[in-house]
Amino acid sequence: MRYVLPVSATENPPPPHPGADPRPVPGQDPRVQWGLSLAVVAVGAVTIRPMGLGGQGLAVAVLFVVNSAALLARGVPESRVPPRLALAWLSSGIVAAAALLGVGDSGTTYLFAYFVAGHVGYRLGTGRALALAGTCSLLCAGVLYFHLGPGNPELPWVLGLTTGAPVVVGILNRTQRQAVRSALSAAESAERAARAEARTAVLTERGRIARDVHDVLAHSLAGINMQLELADALLETGDLEKVREANAKAHGLVKESLKQAQWTVHALREDALPLLESLTAMVESAGHHDAVTVTGTVREVPAQVTQNLLRIAQEALTNAARHAPGGNVGVDLTFTASSITLRIRNRPATRAVTPGVGSGMGLIGMRERVALLGGSVGAGPVTEGQDQGGWQVEAVIPG
Fold first, then answer.
1. What is the helix (H) or strand (E) element at residue 377, kind and residue range?
2. Residue 174 and residue 181: Cα distance in Å, rounded?
3. pTM higher than 0.90 for the full model?
4. Which residue, 341, 334, 344, 333, is CA-closest to 375?
5. pLDDT, tens digit, 9 for 90 and up, residues 110-125
6. 125-147 in b/e burial notation, b at 16+ Cβ within 10 A?
7. Alpha helix ranges (H) inside 104-239
8. pLDDT tens, 351-370?
9. In the chain, what are the helix, strand and coil shares in percent, each to the nearest 5?
10. Range scoring the smallest mean pLDDT among 35-39, 71-75, 100-104, 231-235
């Protein structure tokens, strides 16, 4: 049997703060984006002309700064930029890129339009991204076609039409990002579910072990305690014969308790006990040889079914030894296509019955065990046949 260790609360990561940035997506390193943006700005600062403090140079310098700011703003996490602000910022960036294309005489003025269009696809939804990218292409193509401003006359207007094309790359990156984050979210949900299931399994296992230990030890320890108290009381009367009798009964209860504890430990340590072999060994250890009868084809059953049937048999044999000493015991194990039935009968006692403490399990405990497996259990006196006057326990487990 595999025991699932409890999961510490510290192993469960706290949910992200509402304003926290989303985790990085594998394959999309923000440092690469920053590096490309800085490279475009650096190349533009070196190649774009004219730049100065007056006239056309001042206009180029201002538009260069605006374009650089719009491009570098792509590094701001999405969680910190509302959708409307992102739309306004990217729209102004595209207008600034088209204006720089018309004002600058030379250099890489067109690179800003390409990179801003790519980030439009990454940052906005598909519909808005395509519309804004189309606007970028039309603006840039119009500026070059109609020669709006003293721009570089060598740039063909067709180049302006292509400035919106990188939006496709941005959309693909955004789709990949969403798919990866969805997969990560699903994996985290599955991990949380697995941890919750593990905790439930731990609690269930603890309850089962507690029930087994209680069933095995509670009635025996109570009986031992009663006999020892009786022996103490008898010592004061000087009746040594009765003291020895009480002491012998206590020793008998100790042996019985040890035997039951051995079976319980065996059941707890094994992943899969062979039902028939274990049941036969248990019955024989109780002093009943050739008492097991099998009907149907024996098959392997789940460990939980085996353990619960063995515990029911153990309790029934213990009760038979206590309440019907000397009576013959018969155990019937029946396999059908849809169920497994365990029936234990004991005949009336042939020796004097010694009053004792009942089991901590009883019929309620048996029903509790069988209910977990979707079966049923019944117990009562035998009213007919050769075992008339005895007692019968019958458990039926589906499967």
1. strand 376-381
2. 10
3. no
4. 341
5. 999 999 999 999 999 9
6. eeebbbebbebbbbbbbebbeee
7. 110-123, 126-145, 157-161, 167-237
8. 776 655 454 456 777 888 88
9. 65, 10, 30
10. 231-235
